[in-house]
Amino acid sequence: MTAPGARLAAVFDVLGPLYRRGVRAVEQEGGMPVGVRAVLDALAGCGAATVPTVPTLARTLSLSRQFVQRSVDDAAERGWVRTRENPAHRRSVLVELTDAGVEVLSDVRDGERRELGALEEGLDPDDLDACLRVLRALSTRLADHPM
């Protein structure tokens, strides 16, 4: 019999190094720091109707406000995001993707999909679907009950 929590501990033991290798690959392949990538992804997911602030992005990404601010500043220097005054709050600016940001994110995603397509070869699609279901359930549970 397996001790309670041992299977999930093993999952996290695999996920940590996997995540770090993935982060390095993203940064090397696209020349984009992972924090900037996270901000661009979050902004792309907001849609045109929602223009978030740095604190909102930080909550969405479960990252510190300071880290997100540095990532927004980095993305702004590269011309991938722009900030503008927030009429609802003097110090918390609104952040939005620029056309260049949309384009570079699309290019990075396309490159990743090509690379991931090669890694996906030989893996059972049903296993991948099960993996996604489990990881999404864990993500939801952790959001509702942080350790």
UniProtKB/TrEMBL annotation:
<dbReference type="InterPro" id="IPR000835">
    <property type="entry name" value="HTH_MarR-typ"/>
</dbReference>
<feature type="domain" description="HTH marR-type">
    <location>
        <begin position="8"/>
        <end position="140"/>
    </location>
</feature>
<dbReference type="InterPro" id="IPR036390">
    <property type="entry name" value="WH_DNA-bd_sf"/>
</dbReference>
<dbReference type="Pfam" id="PF12802">
    <property type="entry name" value="MarR_2"/>
</dbReference>
<dbReference type="InterPro" id="IPR036388">
    <property type="entry name" value="WH-like_DNA-bd_sf"/>
</dbReference>
<protein>
    <submittedName>
        <fullName>MarR family transcriptional regulator</fullName>
    </submittedName>
</protein>
<dbReference type="InterPro" id="IPR039422">
    <property type="entry name" value="MarR/SlyA-like"/>
</dbReference>
